[in-house]
Amino acid sequence: MTTNARLYRAPPDLLAGRNVVVTGAGDGIGKAAALCFAAHGATVVLLGRAQQKLEASYDAIVTAGGPEPIIQVLDLAHATEEHYATLATQIEEQLGCLHGLLHNAALLGPRKPLDQYPLRDWRELMAVNVEAGFMLTRALLPAMRAAPAASVVFTSSGVGRRGKAFWGAYAVSKFAVEGLCQVFADELGSTSAVRVNCINPGATNTSMRRAAYPAETPTRNPEPAGIMPSYLFLMGDASRDVNGQSLDAQGG
Ligand code: NDP
Prior knowledge:
The chain is an alpha/beta fold. The protein has helices spanning 2-6, 28-39, 51-63, 81-95, 119-145, 168-189, 207-212, 228-235; strands at 19-23, 43-48, 70-73, 100-103, 150-155, 194-200, 246-248. The longest helix has 27 residues, at 119-145. The model has no long low-confidence stretch (mean pLDDT 97). The site of NADPH dihydro-nicotinamide-adenine-dinucleotide phosphate (NDP) has 27 residues, from helix 2 and helix 7.
């Protein structure tokens, strides 16, 4: 099934008439996903902390002829319950219902042994990588239940399946993401048309990858746009019966 996802060829109108939220939509994989979903017809809510980067994604989508996206500036490190509630109300008022939610935003954090890991960094990273996934999914569930079907996609990592030295809070947060995905999937699978899955992008040429592996030749890894088939598979109807799975966007 994962092989099919990596080789998935989406019809051009896969997401026509669908509304999709992408977090971290101003850079890296999130920007590529936002542009790709819009190119397949989706109205994308571009969520991130940097207005200028989101405007660049907005401009790229409009220039390419995609549906006009919506910008939502939110710093997930400091978002409160009220921020999530306001966001949900605005999305319901603007779009009515929501067909997709890609939790992509994340922090890498310091690369240090856990016994030297600063608590402040731990807490900030957990807020962005874990708490935001919980709070945003919860807040947007009514809008997703209002759609005929909806897909929630969490972003995992290889170090969220096998812990590695010096990956600190990042690795722990990705284990938590896998757990969030499984619990939501189990709860929603039998009670709603909302499916919940994880995707591990694999090594991809972004600023996060370059920061994690400064000695690596960046071009040895695919560009974000090159790993989109699995994202389209999970966001579109081809994955209608897939729930609680953790897929790899790359690999043999
Ligand atoms: P980037 O660092 O390029 O992008 C991360 C995105 O998250 C940016 O848009 C960033 O915003 C956003 N973000 C960070 N902090 C916050 C915050 N407080 N509030 C709102 N948005 C925030 O990384 P990638 O594109 O590489 O990563 C995307 C996802 O893929 C992540 O979940 C990552 O863990 C995962 N991943 C990536 C791999 C890779 O090789 N690239 C491998 C495995 C997993 P801003 O632009 O303002 O900084």
